[in-house]
């Protein structure tokens, strides 16, 4: 059985790295808001065209088909949002290359997950409490971004690596996770970087196979 476990480490970035972390978190928030605005614009345009077609005598099916043909499908999914971003990023964010692509992927992924949860809640596909439509994030929102590809992970018992930002020292030992990675009893799947009260943290999610005698759960680091 594949088991997932998270390890959180407080980071000790220098000034340049702290600026890089803030820039990546800001980029993630920016693309999230950009994608949400794009979705709302598509929905509004689609509704307006459907209403126009209905007034001109079309039935509901014809109106919906015509509106979709004119506006294109609403980019609800992560692949659709990424395609739109790649087409428009040079115009809407000429500075995009200053950050790792992971920052933008993180923001779009968060939006796609929020949209999926909203529609799942409306359709009865979720057993949890009702989920509202995603809202725009302001600068007071929690600063964070997620990394799933590229050069990232634990370097040694006191350092971690993040794409574009490089190697950062941690304020606590990473030895337990580092040992599991060295002996190949686990692998890192993702890293979530977040800021709280001026402090930056990196949470690494690793997986290991419970059936292997080498793989035993290590205590989660605070």
Q: Can you walk through the features of this model?
A:
This protein is α+β, with helices and mostly antiparallel strands. The chain has helices at 15-55, 60-71, 78-92, 101-123, 175-182; strands at residues 2-10, 144-147, 153-156, 159-162, 166-169, 187-196, 199-209. It has 2 domains: 2-20 and 142-209, no CATH class; 22-123, no CATH class. The strands form 2 sheets. The chain has a 4-stranded antiparallel β-sheet with strand order 1-7-6-2. It is elongated. Mean pLDDT is 87; it is low at 212-222.
The biggest sheet, with number of strands, parallel, antiparallel or mixed sense and barrel status, is:
4 strands, antiparallel
Q: Any idea how many domains?
A: 2
Distance between the termini: 25 Å
Low-confidence stretches: 212-222
SSE ordering: EHHHHEEEEHEE
Strand residue percentage = 15-25%
**Count of alpha and pi helical runs:** 5
The backbone outline, from C-alpha atoms, is: elongated
Query: Which structural class do you get from the secondary structure elements?
Result: alpha+beta
Strand order of the largest sheet: 1-7-6-2
The rounded Rg comes to 21 Å
| Mean pLDDT across all amino acids | 87
Please tally the β strands and state the result. Answer: 7
Question: Percent of residues in helical segments?
Answer: 40-55%
């Amino acid at each position: 059985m594949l088991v997932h476990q998270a390890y959180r480490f407080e980071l000790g970035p220098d000034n340049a790295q702290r600026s890089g972390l803030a820039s990546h978190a800001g980029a993630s928030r920016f693309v999230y808001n950009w994608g949400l605005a794009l979705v709302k614009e598509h929905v509004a345009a689609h509704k307006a065209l459907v209403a126009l077609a209905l007034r001109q005598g079309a039935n509901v099916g014809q109106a919906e088909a015509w509106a979709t043909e004119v506006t294109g499908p609403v980019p609800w999914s992560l692949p659709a949002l990424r395609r739109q971003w790649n087409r428009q990023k040079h115009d809407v964010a000429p500075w995009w290359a200053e950050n790792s692509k992971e920052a933008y992927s993180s923001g779009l992924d968060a939006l796609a997950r929020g949209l999926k949860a909203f529609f799942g809640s409306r359709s009865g596909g979720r057993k949890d409490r009702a989920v509202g439509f995603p809202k725009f994030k302001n600068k007071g929102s929690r600063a964070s971004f997620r990394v799933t590809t590229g050069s990232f992970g634990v370097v040694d018992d006191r350092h971690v690596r993040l794409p574009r930002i490089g190697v950062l020292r941690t304020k606590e030992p990473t030895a337990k996770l580092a040992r599991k990675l060295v002996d190949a009893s686990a692998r890192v799947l993702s890293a979530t970087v977040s800021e709280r009260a001026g402090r930056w943290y990196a949470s690494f999610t690793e997986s290991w196979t419970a059936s292997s005698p080498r793989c035993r759960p290590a205590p989660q680091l605070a």
